[in-house]
Design goal:
heterodimer, A: mainly beta, seven-stranded mixed beta sheet, four-stranded antiparallel beta sheet, 50% strand, B: 126 residues, mainly beta
Chain lengths: 107, 126
């Protein structure tokens, strides 16, 4: 099973700042089959990024994904108030596993 | 628009079973596989398995094999997830989610998820 480790656990930032979230896999993720989801309290997750760097429909361009192999990054270029949430990475190249999440909180 | 509407919250005793439903609308039901994912209180996401809505194909995560059964009813565009021998550790919000691929993704575990149900809280307590 591929284990995904997200860091940091919590990111404290102010609106307008840049957020950089990391997702590291225990082995290479084939074909960059990696996705990112955003989850707000009491809500279901929402797809942001798939195939490591493709934005899902309707996702603002301040969200971007990058990486390959075992190291992936989600970047939010300028945090908006609605971006404070928990973010999960998911690999779907070898079964399905999720990272433990990174919480982006208001500083 | 794609909608996945799940059944309401459940409270069960240890050892009992629970069956959660997920009714799909807004797209051709049999063209997309459905996943089940759960989230324990304050915890992360855990994949349970995938079903073709006709019920013809299922793949379960190893952790849940023997305890989970996923079924589908094309007449009502509904998929079901039944979990048996419940224990306190099964207390969680259970989500259904649509696979992103129109048809078969090429992998028995599917692909990423493009739409989610609202979640169903299952509480296991004596």
């Amino acid at each position: 099973e591929i284990v995904l480790t997200q860091s940091p656990g919590t990111l404290s930032l102010s609106p307008g700042e840049r957020a950089t979230l990391s997702c590291r896999a225990s082995q290479s993720v084939s074909s960059s089959y990696l996705a990112w989801y955003q989850q707000k309290p009491g809500q279901a997750p929402r797809l942001l990024i798939y195939a490591a760097s493709s934005r899902a429909t309707g996702i603002p361009d301040r969200f971007s994904g990058s990486g390959s192999g075992t190291d992936f990054t989600l970047t939010i270029s300028r945090l908006e108030p609605e971006d404070f949430a928990v973010y999960y990475c998911q690999q779907y190249g070898s079964s399905q596993t999720f990272g433990q999440g990174t919480k982006v909180e208001i500083k | 628009q794609v909608q996945l509407l799940q059944s309401g919250a459940e409270v069960k005793k240890p050892g009992a079973s629970v069956k959660v439903s997920c009714k799909a609308s807004g797209y051709t039901f049999t063209n997309y596989y459905i996943h089940w994912v759960r989230q324990a209180p304050g915890q992360g996401l855990e994949w349970m398995g995938i079903i073709h809505p006709s019920g013809s194909t299922t793949t379960y995560a190893q952790k849940f094999r023997g305890r989970v059964t996923m079924t589908g009813d094309t007449s009502t565009s509904t998929v079901y997830m039944e979990l048996t021998s419940l224990r306190s550790e099964d207390t969680a919000v259970y989500y259904c989610a649509r696979d992103s691929t129109n048809g078969y993704s090429g992998y028995e575990w599917g692909s990423y998820f493009d739409s989610w149900g609202q979640g169903t809280l299952v509480t296991v307590s004596s």
